[in-house]
């Protein structure tokens, strides 16, 4: 005899896992280079890789082309890391838009405008990272070195200062890594042409934006997947639920998604009604509505499963079909 309540519980568990998908908040942080449209290229690369559960956050908005581009960021032209550390700007922005991941490229103006030493900038980084972790002890920081400067447009001392600071960042960033709050170093200097890839010897043009997006892509994708491992972008994480007894009460779904399930059975041979209503995701502006289905024994289970296939994402369907197969085999 099958315990048809297992079917209800299995379906509920699978839908609840999808509906509980976490939207990962990503904050691009820095100065004017951060405000450029490499962010749009990066978002496109993520979506092309089927990573969509992200929300770029910040108090600033850009004007990058594309209706689907999330324009939010925390890139403030002319800003210095040393000023941010001294004035507490970052804490204000973190409180207003708490991120899970920070993409940081910051320090060019400290070298070029502020004439700050490498030691001064590293001390400022210490303060900023402490502020990040005070807000979120599990902050995931993707730490980029600085783009090269064209010495024909900017002082040679500035170009040399960038090289020196980058050498320090390469050692500094990994030293700040912890298990709880990872720090991943990204090298945007290597392979970037300060003449061909900039508009003015400093800020990226279209080719520069594409190069930056490529450098940030893998680290950003991996951060999102590490923070939200049960999202549809990681279908292998959606394991089929173990069968439960017919009369057992399914555990409470502890997610912000509202999933209501009702399983009714009068006997092992009776039909089991499963109502799955309004399985809403936490993804930005998205929701998934799942139609009411009635599953009975034998061939009707297969028919009901077929009707669901068109409505559910592939990874959800795979999990659902596994539950149907397991229930059907033991129904008689």
UniProtKB/TrEMBL annotation:
InterPro entries: Ester_Hydrolysis_Enzymes, SGNH_hydro, SGNH_hydro_sf
Disordered as annotated region, ranges: 229-252
Gene Ontology molecular function, alphabetical: phosphatidylcholine lysophospholipase activity
Position of the signal peptide: 1-20
Family annotation (Gene3D superfamilies): SGNH hydrolase
CDD domains: XynB_like (cd01833)
UniProt keyword Signal present: yes
Segments traversing the membrane: none
Keywords: Hydrolase, Signal
Domain SGNH hydrolase-type esterase intervals: 40-210
Segments of skewed composition (Low complexity): 235-246
Keyword hit for Zinc: no
Matches recorded under Pfam families: Lipase_GDSL_2 (PF13472)
PANTHER family (alphabetical): CELLULOSE-BINDING PROTEIN, THIOESTERASE 1/PROTEASE 1/LYSOPHOSPHOLIPASE L1
Name of this protein: Hydrolase
Organism field: Didymella rabiei
Lineage of the organism: Eukaryota, Fungi, Dikarya, Ascomycota, Pezizomycotina
């Amino acid at each position: 005899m099958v315990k048809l309540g297992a079917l209800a519980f299995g379906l509920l568990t699978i839908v609840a896992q999808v509906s509980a998908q976490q939207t990962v908040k990503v904050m691009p942080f820095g100065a004017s280079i951060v405000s450029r449209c490499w962010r749009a290229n990066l978002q496109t690369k993520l979506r092309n890789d089927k990573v969509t559960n992200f929300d770029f956050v910040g108090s600033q908005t850009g004007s990058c082309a594309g209706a689907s581009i999330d324009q939010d960021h925390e890139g403030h032209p002319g800003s210095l890391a040393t000023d941010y550390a001294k004035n507490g700007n970052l804490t204000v922005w973190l409180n207003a838009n708490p991120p899970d991941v920070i993409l940081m490229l910051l320090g060019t103006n400290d070298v070029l405008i502020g004439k700050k030493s490498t030691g001064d900038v590293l001390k400022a980084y210490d303060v900023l990272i402490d502020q990040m972790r005070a807000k979120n002890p599990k902050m995931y920081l993707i730490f980029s070195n600085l783009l090269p400067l064209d010495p024909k447009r900017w002082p040679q001392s500035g170009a040399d200062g960038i090289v020196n600071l980058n050498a320090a960042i390469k050692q500094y960033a990994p030293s700040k890594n912890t298990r709880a709050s990872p720090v991943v170093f990204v090298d945007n200097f290597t392979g970037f042409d300060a003449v061909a890839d900039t508009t003015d010897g400093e800020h990226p043009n279209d080719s520069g934006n594409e190069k930056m997006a490529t450098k940030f892509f893998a680290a950003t994708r991996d951060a999102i997947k590490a923070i939200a491992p049960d999202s549809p972008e990681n279908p292998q994480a959606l394991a089929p639920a173990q069968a439960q007894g017919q009369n057992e009460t399914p555990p409470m779904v502890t997610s912000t998604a509202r999933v209501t399930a009702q399983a009714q059975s009068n006997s092992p041979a009776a039909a089991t009604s499963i109502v799955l209503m309004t399985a809403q995701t936490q993804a930005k502006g998205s929701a998934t509505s799942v139609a009411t289905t009635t599953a009975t024994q034998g061939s009707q289970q297969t028919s009901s499963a077929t009707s669901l296939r068109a409505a559910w994402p592939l990874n959800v369907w795979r999990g659902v079909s596994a539950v149907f197969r397991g229930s059907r085999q033991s129904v008689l």
